[in-house]
Specification:
The complex is a heterodimer of chains A (495) and B (104).
Chain A (H helix, E strand, L loop, with lengths): L14 E2 L6 H4 L4 E2 L3 E6 L5 H14 L5 E5 L4 H9 L5 H6 L3 E5 L8 E2 L6 H14 L3 E5 L3 H5 L3 H17 L3 E7 L17 E10 L2 E11 L8 E7 L2 E4 L15 E2 L4 H6 L5 E2 L3 E6 L5 H14 L4 E5 L4 H10 L5 H5 L3 E5 L7 H15 L3 E5 L1 H6 L6 H14 L3 E7 L19 E8 L6 E9 L9 E6 L2 E7 L12 H7 L1
Chain B lengths: L13 E7 L4 H17 L4 E7 L6 H4 L7 E6 L4 E4 L5 H8 L8
Parallel strand pairs in B: 1-2
Antiparallel strand pairs in B: 1-3, 3-4
Classes of the chains: A alpha/beta (495), B alpha+beta (104).
Chain lengths: 495, 104
């Protein structure tokens, strides 16, 4: 319906796309065209790379040649750096698409003998811009001037003039600045930049590095103030445009099977809502993965694509284990309906995993996603801000109308609230699995702790996992719960 | 002076290059100040070359020019660079490492 659209503020501001995956989404189309953007962050946060990508993509994809005035790296070094990402600066320079000018600033070696201006810099920049008819400019990092020139009054006045000059010449510029202790940049460059300020951050918590990007300001554009995780890999930077801006996803009313008829039965006989998020929690060995596999199996049987993120076991291990409980998932793998993606949880931080998950989902467009187990993802995060990250993932899946199942390992004696950083509140349905030992006889139990928007059974049932698959036993009433002998045999006969 | 080719410069011969950008007050002041100092300290032992970057912008990169005016001492080695309109004579003398004539 077209009525849903006016909510999005349409800005008249022209944008220059960065070509960086995700960044153009969170900025509503790119950086402000013909304006100066400040990109700040500490050393090694990826600002030079982001700036270079902006320039290279501009030159290659958008027909906007670019000039880089580099105050830190020589042309040769810079070429080598970006070559690792598959960009050939020399080739781009030859075809007049990109020009790098290394500006050496001698540190405090220049005697100052009276008034001066930075006209030399202006002349070099303007010469380079004219030579290739540049539309984009990167100044990385202009703050180097502060270490070379003592007269900061002149320098500040000249920087202001430089930014004005860039705008007068309708150049889309990115200026980088080193993070200061109490300010965004060490020398307060943010004072001069009115239109767009982006901060990058690189933290290492418990040996796991996380990178984040935040749009501090963007005049004339509504933007999220969230921190967006981003990834630097062989393809360069990709920002995860997970946003917690709005709860506007459409709630679907059609249902999908849980893959277990008896469990469907407990949920009005129909199973989960499509596009909902389901949490399956339980202690070790209670059958969480089996439940998830049944769910995936049912999706594939309906002919839907399922993406299964395995953080604990390899795909072949999962396939083997599931054969033992009567599921043959191989055929769906062969049919390319079931896609496994196995990752070591500690291979990267939560952000890295989210970025990978996001990338895969964008590529495969599955209807069903399984994350098994989410606990390990949380471990990878150093527990920092996990909830907000997962919330964005859940929102993202909902907006895509993907039905998702998350398994969650809990520990004995703490079957409920041991859930990963309170993720349960984000979930539409929550299925709890647990062990119990009534009369010394171990058994597994399942119950639906919550299921939003539907009448569902609250009674615990015995969970029977065998080579025939997953079955649910009789309702364990208060009477039977933990008192009567209700072993598998008794249940089966009761069925 | 023309007889003396650049390839065999005397050790105390100064080759100076002054970068300016158009006829701005600072540029004009720098030229005047420089001439005065040279005549005072280096009479007969110097050559000044003035480069206007508005005419030859491509030359800015070679000597890594950022500020205007910039004076580069190309000879004798090592290359030295000072910036500003050269109004602070003492700074110029120190910056160019000029030997007081009287001591020679």
């Amino acid at each position: 319906m077209p009525r849903a659209r006016p909510k999005v503020a349409r800005s008249s501001l022209a944008k220059a796309p960065t070509g960086i995956q995700g960044l153009d989404e969170v900025t509503g189309g790119g950086l402000p065209k013909g304006r100066v953007t400040l990109l700040c962050g500490s050393a090694g946060c990826g600002k030079s790379l982001l700036a270079m990508e902006f320039l290279v993509h501009g030159a290659v994809r958008y027909g906007e040649p670019g000039v880089c005035m580099d105050f830190e790296e020589t042309e040769v070094k810079l070429s080598a750096n970006v070559a690792s990402l598959g960009f050939d600066l020399r080739e781009l320079a030859k075809s007049k698409k990109l020009l790098v000018d290394y500006v050496a600033v001698e540190r405090h070696e220049i005697a100052e003998t009276g008034e001066y201006s930075l006209e030399g810099l202006f002349i070099r920049l303007s010469h380079a811009v004219k030579a290739i008819k540049a539309k984009r400019v990167v100044l990385d990092s202009i703050e180097a001037l502060f270490s070379g020139l003592k007269d900061s009054t002149t320098l500040r006045a000249e920087l202001r003039r430089l930014f004005q000059w860039l705008e007068e010449h309708k150049l889309t510029a990115v200026v980088t600045g080193e993070a200061g202790e109490h300010t965004l940049t060490r020398h307060g460059l943010e004072e001069y930049i009115a239109d767009c300020v982006i901060a990058l951050d690189h933290r290492v918590t418990e040996q796991i590095s996380t990178r984040r990007l935040r749009i501090v300001k963007y005049r004339g554009t509504s933007h999220g103030t969230d921190e967006y995780p981003f990834l630097i890999d062989r393809e360069g930077i990709s920002v995860v445009p997970l946003s917690s801006l709005a709860l506007t996803h459409k709630a679907l009313t059609d249902r999908v099977s849980t893959g277990i008829p008896a469990l469907d039965e407990m949920m009005e006989g129909k199973g989960f809502f499509r596009g909902s998020s389901v949490l399956v929690s339980g202690t070790a060995g209670t059958g969480k993965s089996s439940l998830a596999a049944n769910f995936a199996n049912a999706a594939c049987a309906r002919g839907e694509d399922c993406l299964y993120f395995a953080f604990e076991e390899s795909p072949s291990q999962i396939l083997r284990n599931m054969r033992s409980v009567g599921l043959s998932l191989e055929r769906f793998v062969r049919k390319r309906l079931l896609h496994f993606h196995a990752m070591r949880p500690t291979s990267t931080g939560l952000e890295g995993h989210l970025a990978a998950i996001h990338k895969m989902i964008a590529k495969l467009r599955p209807r069903v996603v399984v994350i098994d187990p989410i606990t390990n993802l949380v471990l990878a995060s150093g527990t920092y801000d996990v909830k907000s990250m997962l919330m964005r993932l859940v929102d993202f899946l909902k907006v895509q109308q993907i039905t998702s199942m998350f398994t969650n390992l809990t520990f004995a004696g703490d079957p409920h609230e041991g859930t990963a950083a309170g993720v349960s509140s984000l979930m539409d349905a929550w299925i709890v699995l647990r062990d119990s030992k009534p009369n010394g006889r171990p058994r597994r139990e399942l119950y639906v702790l919550k299921s939003r928007g539907m009448a569902h059974s609250r009674e615990p049932r015995e969970l029977i996992v065998s080579h025939r698959g997953i079955e649910l036993g009789i309702v364990l009433t208060d009477h039977t719960l933990g008192t009567t002998v209700a072993g598998p045999s008794a249940v089966r006969s009761a069925k | 002076m023309k007889r003396r080719p650049a390839k065999t410069p005397r050790r105390d011969f100064y080759r100076l290059r002054l970068y300016i950008a158009g006829q701005t007050p600072n540029s004009i002041a720098a030229i005047d100040n420089l001439k005065k100092i040279c005549e005072d300290k280096l009479r007969g032992k110097y050559r000044i070359e003035v480069v206007d970057l508005l005419e030859k912008p491509q030359l800015a990169k070679g000597d890594q020019i950022i500020a205007i005016p910039t004076l580069v001492r190309r000879l004798p080695p090592p290359v030295k660079k000072i910036i500003g309109n050269l109004s602070k004579t003492e700074s110029v003398i120190v910056g160019l490492d000029l030997q007081p004539v009287t001591l020679e």
